[in-house]
Amino acid sequence: MSILDWLVLSITLLGISAYGVYRGRKAQSLDGFLRADQSLPWYHVGLSVMATQASAITFLAGPGYGYAHGLGFIQFYLGLPLAVLVLCISFVPNFYRLNVYTAYEYLEGRFDAKTRLLTSLLFLVLRALSTSISVYAPSLILSALLHIPTYSSTLLVGVLVLSYTLTGGSKAVSYTQVLQMLIIFTGLFTAIYTTFRLLPEGVHLAQVVKITGAMGHLKAIDFKWDLAERYNIWSGLIGGFFLQLSYFGTDQSQVGRYITGSSTRESKLGLIMNGIVKIPMQFLILSTGVLVFAFYQFTPPPLSFNPLIKSGMPAGNLSTRYAALEKEHREAFDHKKVTLNAYLFPPTQTNLKEEMINRRIIQRDYSHMLNLEKKAIALNPVKDNKSDDSNYVFLGFILGYLPHGLIGALIAIIFLSSMGAVSSALNSMASTTLVDIYRRWIGKDEKDSLYLLLSKGFTLFWGLICIALALIIGRFDNLIEAVNIIGSFVYGPILGVFLVAFYLKWVRGNSVFYAGILGEIMVLLSSKFLPVAYLWLNVVGSISVVLIAIILESTIFKQKIQSTLKTK
Amino acid sequence: MNKRGLVWNSWTLAYALVVLMLFLEILFLNYISSLNG
């Protein structure tokens, strides 16, 4: 990092935070603080919804996943456009009709207070956990860059986000997110363009496609029906549909974004924009990783991308073994590169048999390199350093090869995306704590100014909780999946509750409440005993709740009402 | 056509566009997947 990079990074981060404070300065009412006075146009809604979902994890582990595994993760998002349709038809009109601040507020009108309380508490727990990961992810960057402990960078990110979320609320969140997304898109395109230019002479798109295709990195769609397979088209379309529907429909960090739209029309158009743009955007992010993978076919990659693996190796026997692995890794790379050149630029007329042989040699050398990388990581005695190395790939690449100025801009993007996601989360957790907990159970008829003050207090409270959690949560293997896996445990049953609310008008509070709890137990049991990938847990959770609610309503709770009538 | 019908129709078109885009995106991704060197 040069002075220019630091300048770009600081100006961007401080500029965005100041812009947020400036834009949110008029949020002097509760409605302004929690819903931006329901005044925003559709493109604000759309970009805000996208910025909320795209955290730093998306920009760190996303290209990392593309580098390590290819495009397959894109299937995770295939259910999103379908979920958008259901959101526009059922969720948005219902939330607007009842003029709610939070999604859970709707549930009390439809069912009862305990269902509202259960869902809002589940949301708070889940969101606090996911947000702490969103704070932790960029702290990896700063600690690797400045060689400072992870906690100091976590604190810095937390303070920046709190500065405008605390003063400007929902409006500040939305305005900053629009700017963040514009910077993010510009940066991403520039990164892809620059990476292309770094490829050796003669290597163009055709060669990139040939080599990444040969290594299986272009396999974006897998049609094989396999419930245990993490990402295929079926888990993406069906499991992804349930996950995205529950995320966008029942997670207040998203509901809180699109109810800022000035009408249902603006809100729906914003969601439709998200439904159309999301898959291309993820494709762009994963392709960046695949492109970096192509780059490292011509330039030797480090044995481990996490610099702490090498620097943390104690002197003596372990260091010697690491150095030996490094040497072997380099030899395998050199051998692969020679074959790769013959594969991409055959000296004579293409000989299909020879091409197949070369291809197999490249694949064999590559898997040998992967084995050595695994061995190197296993050598490190410090537990903290064993997190998935692919999370460090994109960062390592940016720092090592991109021009100064762009380095600062791209690192700013990683921070901005984290700030976007975290700011939505803090604002939504404050909304839920105020509207569904405090105003419902503690202080029902108090002044608007007190509620506003308390909202700010809750924003600060959750900010501090998330920072504290972020300091201890960095032990998950792969960050993206950690967030999604936690989500899959809780989202399904909550979606089930909302589906019953919208589509089964005859089912009442008690049935859905106990169905929610039993549904959660079903999810936990399925994850323990059934060989299904985590995306399917959303389907299990939602459908269990709907079915159990129907059964309870037509058996136990039906009898209860009849017996109450008889007694009377 | 009354106003309600018109609104309904324009939303139907918007929803159809979302589904069409998804279909095209899957087709594109499937094409990319077939490029295996």
Protein topology:
The complex is a heterodimer of chains A (568) and B (37).
Chain A lengths: L2 H21 L6 H6 L6 H12 L2 H14 L10 H18 L5 H8 L2 H34 L3 H49 L6 H10 L18 H18 L1 H7 L5 H32 L11 H5 L5 H28 L7 H28 L13 H9 L4 H37 L5 H25 L6 H25 L5 H21 L4 H21 L1 H12 L1
Helix pairs in contact in A: 1-8, 1-17, 3-8, 3-11, 3-12, 3-17, 4-12, 4-17, 5-10, 5-12, 6-7, 7-8, 7-17, 7-18, 7-19, 8-12, 8-17, 8-18, 10-11, 10-19, 10-21, 11-17, 14-15, 17-18, 19-20, 19-21, 20-21, 21-22
Chain B lengths: L2 H32 L3
In short:
Chain A is mainly α and 568 residues long. Chain A has helices at residues 3-23, 30-35, 42-53, 56-69, 80-97, 103-110, 113-146, 150-198, 205-214, 233-250, 252-258, 264-295, 307-311, 317-344, 352-379, 393-401, 406-442, 448-472, 479-503, 509-529, 534-554, 556-567.
Quantity of strands of chain B, as a count: 0
- Measure the end-to-end span of chain B: 54 Å
Indicate the CATH topology of the largest domain in chain A: Sodium/glucose cotransporter
Global Rg of chain A: 25 Å
User: How much helicity do the residues of chain A have?
Assistant: over 70%
Number of helices of chain B: 1
Give the overall silhouette of chain B.
Answer: rod-shaped
Q: Structural class of the helices, strands and pairings of chain A?
A: mainly alpha
- Estimate what percentage of residues of chain A fall within beta strands: under 5%
Number of domain units of chain B: 1
- What best-fitting shape of chain A do the alpha-carbon axes yield? globular
Q: Please, how many helices of chain A?
A: 22
